[in-house]
Amino acid sequence: MSARRRFRNDAHAIAAARRFAAEECAGVPAELVEQIQLMLSELATNAIRHAGSAFEVSLERRDQLLKVAVTDEGGGTPTLRSPSPKELSGRGLQIVKMLARDWGIDQSASGPKTVWFTVTLIANDAATNDAATNDAVANDAVAAAGRRARRASPDPDGPPAPSAPVAHRSERAHRRPGDPRSAPTARACRRQPDAVRAHRPLARW
C-alpha cells in the first residue's frame, strides 16, 4: 500500500493530513491510528511553522511495517530538543522518538527535506488472533452447555414418561373392607389411640 497527498501551508492542513492518514490506515487498531495521527501532526506543524512551505504526506506499507513521511521545501534542519517544563513548544520530535519504532531525517544540500517515522502493524494481527481465540472458546462453551441441556432433558420425539397412578376419591370410597389398599396408614393409626386400645385383649388374673 502506498499513498501520498500534498497540502498547502495552512493551519487547517494539519487536520486534513490527520484525516488522510486515518483513511489510509483502515483496519489498523484505533489506538495505533491515534499515535500515527499525533506524530504526523507534529511533523506537519514543523513544516508549516518552521519551514514555511507546503508539504507532502506519504504513507507506505510493507508487510507489517508502515512508514509515514512529511516532505517540505523549506530551509533549516529539524533538531531533537529537550525543552524545559516552562517552554510551550519544542517537543515534536521527542514525541516521534517516543512513539515510533524508528525515525529519521533525509535532507540534501539544496533539495527538500523529509522527516519520517515507522510503526509496526503486527499488533493488528495479534488483536485479530485474540478475538478469534475468544470466539472459539465462547462457541465451545455454548456447544458444551447445549449438550448438557440435551442430556438432562427428555427426548421431545420419544414416548412420554409414565406417570405415577393417582387414586381418585371415588376409587378410595369403593374399596372393600378386606382390600389391603384400604388399610389405615401409620398416621391414621396414630390418630386413633382409643380404637387401638379397645382391641387389646384383657389380661387375666
Topology:
Layout: E1 2-7, H1 12-24, H2 30-51, E2 55-62, E3 65-72, H3 92-99, E4 102-107, E5 113-120, H4 122-152, H5 169-173, H6 186-190, H7 193-198
Antiparallel strand pairs: 1-2, 2-3, 3-5, 4-5
Helix pairs in contact: 1-2, 2-3
Structural class: alpha+beta
What Rg do the Cα atoms give?
43 Å
What percent strand? 15-25%
User: What is the chain-wise order of helices and strands?
Assistant: EHHEEHEEHHHH
Architecture of the largest domain, CATH level 2?
Answer: 2-Layer Sandwich
> Whole-number average pLDDT?
75
Helix content range: 40-55%
Number of helices: 7
CATH fold descriptor of the largest domain: Heat Shock Protein 90
Strand order of the largest sheet: 1-2-3-5-4
| Number of discrete domains | 2
CATH superfamily of the largest domain: Histidine kinase-like ATPase, C-terminal domain
Describe the biggest sheet? 5 strands, antiparallel
Residue runs with pLDDT of under 50 for 5 or more positions? none
Q: How far apart are the first and last residues' alpha carbons, in Å?
A: 121 Å
CATH class of the largest domain: Alpha Beta
List keywords for this structure.
single chain; 205 residues; alpha+beta; Heat Shock Protein 90; 2 domains; 7 helices; 44% helix; elongated
